[in-house]
Amino acid sequence: MSPKSGENAPCRFPKTARLGTAADFRRVFARPVRSTDDYFTVQALSGHAGRARLGLAIAKRHVRRAVDRNRLKRIAREVFRHEQMRLAGIDFVVSARAPAATAQRQILAESLRQHFERLHGRIDRTDPQARRGARTSQPR
Asked: Which of 18, 23, 49, 135 is deepest in the core (most CB within 10 A)?
């Protein structure tokens, strides 16, 4: 059995599941639906038909150490890989906030799961208003 097949195949993170260009990020940043908590701000927008896509914007000004930024990216990719089948058709951009650098992995993973679930519920891919990125925000 090849590494690309088998029971874990749906949980891969191929290039087609990533926001790859600056234009992709600009489109999400232009009219996002947002979800924010102490650890992350996740922005989403109804994307192209097909699969969910993830972009990571972990800023050095919020998370100073590279090892911490890389850890947050790994956690975000892992959570997204497991949730992506339920999130089809939505583009997400994950940004970290300063407290995320020192938080435990389980807390961060649960935070991201809640963001993805919350945003998935807010974006109705058949609603033209959602496609334009109606703004909503979760209180902190």
From this structure: 18
- Taking residues 46-73, report their average pLDDT: 91
Distance CA 105, CA 79 (A): 11
In a domain, 129, yes or no: no
Total count of domains within the chain: 1
pLDDT one-digit tens code per residue, 31-50:
999 999 999 999 999 977 67
In a domain, 107, yes or no: yes
Q: Mean pLDDT, to the nearest integer, of 21-25?
A: 92
2 pLDDT higher than 70: no
H or E element, residue 41: strand 40-46
Expressed as residue numbers, the domain containing 60 is 36-120
| CATH number of residue 45's parent domain | 3.30.230.10
CA distance 84 to 90: 9
Q: Are strands 90-96 and 40-46 parallel, antiparallel or unpaired?
A: antiparallel
Which residues face 53 on adjacent strands?
A: 91
Structure tokens at 3: 């590494």
Strand partners, 33: 44
96 is a domain residue = yes
